[in-house]
Amino acid sequence: MDSLTQIVLGAAVGEAVLGKKVGNKAMLYGAIAGTIPDLDTLAGHFTDTVTAIEWHRGFTHSIVFSVLFAPVFGWLISKVERKSVATWKNWSWLMFWGLFTHPLLDAHTTWGTQLFWPFDLRLAYKNIFVIDPLYTLPFLVFLMLAMRLPKDSPKRRKFNRLGIIISSIYLLLITPALKWFTFTRFEEALKSQNIEYREISTKPAPLNAILWTANIETDDAFLIGDYSVFDSKPIQFSEYAKNHELLGDWASKKNLQRLINIAEGWYTITEENGELYFNDLRFGTLSPIAGEKADFAFSYRLYEEAGKVKAEETEKTRGDAKKMLTDLGNRVLGN
Asked: What angle do CA 227, 109, 201 make, to 5 degrees?
């Protein structure tokens, strides 16, 4: 999830664990704990693109990391907060839950997380977008109401609990229900259009859980469609040729195989100006409207250097942000 959401979650968890003893400092250190796992994004400055992708939401998003480093961070805080009534164990417990709830939340996104690292098992429930105001804003409001009250106020704990409960209901009940409902609509559309497919994967569109997109694998291509719960028109699918044969001898190269494993097989190859591009379809296109020219959310230019195939992430086209948001809003409303 985005940094603000993880800060809010971490702060709320910190308050629940230690707020009664240390007040707003529990929120502060909880917020810090909620941001620490995402420091793995700094790996991109020190290593190659493929390795950085593999590391993202890996070790720092695991149970192992939470268990090993919570006592370390707890000890450091206990040294900073020498006069606090909270003990090293108290701070360690706060840090553990702040660190641990971060990957638990990330597991619900499309990218997922390697919670059980070092085992090669990525959890990705794909039921919430990385930025979802309906999840974050109510959570944030209740947290702000709580932080304005004395640490021993019953209302403070009530507000914090309400924020956690409401956000959890949205995450664990409402979005999975919407995912199941829209999944059945995609299945019905494929059946009615006599489309034979190997696999289907659905995920919410940006900033909401009303509009959903589906990736469908066929023998030679991938289909991408979208559906809003307010839709009354038939679902349309855009087709993107796999073009895997364009890789030639590169297909057996180690780095290419690593990229394919990361994308879980959901990828196409395109050629432009004599260069090959690897498009990760798990995150779809930047346009919310099916049928528009493909501008993939994650695309990598492939090139060979010293006998190795390497990848470089392409810059995302900024385009007309206002138009994109307008189009997204219209699709959410079923237009």
From this structure: 45
Task: Quick: pLDDT tens for 24-62.
Answer: 999 999 999 999 999 998 877 788 888 888 888 899 999
Distances (CA, A) of 270 to 148, 241, 316: 54, 9, 16
CA of 259: how far to CAs of 155, 224, 255, 264, in Å? Answer: 50, 21, 6, 8
Cα of first residue to Cα of last residue in the chain, in angstroms, is 28
**pLDDT tens across 95-106, in order?**
999 999 999 999
Instruction: Say if residues 280 and 267 touch (Cβ distance below 8 Å).
Output: yes
Q: CA–CA separation, 174 vs 247, rounded Å? A: 42
3-state percent breakdown (helix, strand, coil) of the chain, nearest 5: 50, 20, 30
* Beta-sheet strand order (sheet of 275-285): 267-272, 275-285, 296-305, 308-313
* DSSP at 45: G
Other Cβ atoms within 10 Å of 178 Cβ, number: 20
What burial class does residue 212 get, using C-beta atoms within 10 Å of its C-beta: 0-12 exposed, 13-18 middle, 19+ buried? buried
Please tell me whether the overall predicted TM-score, pTM, comes out greater than 0.90 for this model. Answer: yes
